[in-house]
Structure prediction request, 324 residues.
Amino acid sequence: MRILVAGGAGYIGSVLAPMLREHGYETDVVDLLWFGNHLPDAIPVISRDLFTLDVADLTGYDQVIFLAGLSNDPMAEYDPAMNFVQNGALPPYLAFQSQRAGVKRFIYASSCSIYGYTENKLYDENAPLFCAYPYGISKLAGERGVLQQQQDGFSTIALRQGTVNGHSPRMRFDLIVNTMFKTAMTEGRIVVNNPAIWRPLVDVRDTAGAFLCAVQADEHINGAFNIAYDNFTVGQVAELVKEAVEYHTGNSIQVETRAVTDCRNYKVDCTRAQEQIGFAPRHDVKATVASLFEQYESYGPLTSARYYNIEVFKQLKRTLPTAE
Ligand SMILES: NC(=O)c1ccc[n+]([C@@H]2O[C@H](COP(=O)([O-])OP(=O)(O)OC[C@H]3O[C@@H](n4cnc5c(N)ncnc54)[C@H](O)[C@@H]3O)[C@@H](O)[C@H]2O)c1
Prediction:
């Protein structure tokens, strides 16, 4: 089977693309390489804007996985117009061209951010969706634009991922567990802006595993799936990271709590993904921190701008005004 991973040189793609290859899938990546290329040489990488792909480019692929766009709130808020184009318009455009090219399945990297502020209820995929911030609105627009194209012979799946954490060859330290690990290691403290709000978390190895499940799912499977290991309050995450870092280093870590409001608060139910596509996450927060600790020496300074999407993005926008 031939798979195209669109945006596959990013944080998730750099774990997923090699995993697909290990499972015997012929895997190509198309990516603008905003964060460089950290993929193994064996994976062909085409440096190209996905908006330029047409039917001829997509012909011959059995499945397309979409991991591109602006991947967090600060990027979306820095350039809302580009955010709505890349997250809202590009996924349906690529799904449209994929269907015309004879691709059998399109898998979209959605986000639990689309649940917005949920008053501490556990949400499954039938829950109402409302979010009032550019990243969430655009991810929901992208998801809807992809899912509604499902038809006989063309399956569409959206994986609504919780916040992804852990080690990837293309590393990010702007994700909750990774950020807490960074400040614990460099400053001996973890800063918690709002300890009461809920977040679903998933290790990057498990989210890559969820994409693999979606690739292998029965051809009649379609629709949205929540993807998380579990739900935690931010205060609980801080305590788990503190414990794990203290275990690995023997140093004492302080947790500092602040009272900052957050318009995102959501807990999700992943039963549908477990039952219908066989999603079985294995890595808890302790295992995620262990993976970061194992790679610690290889990171160099954890505060380097290259580990923060918004910093790289601002630089790109300055040097390449046509980055979109
Ligand atoms: N990381 C998370 O916690 C998380 C959680 C939920 C959903 N998601 C979604 O998963 C996807 C992947 O996330 P990530 O953390 O790997 O992101 P990332 O920012 O590390 O990677 C995105 C990649 O897409 C590429 N790209 C962007 N626009 C492009 C275009 N027009 N043409 C070609 N390449 C383009 C970039 O060069 C980059 O390599 C994103 O769509 C994101 O919204 C991520």
In short: Residues 167 and 295 are 7 Å apart (CA to CA).
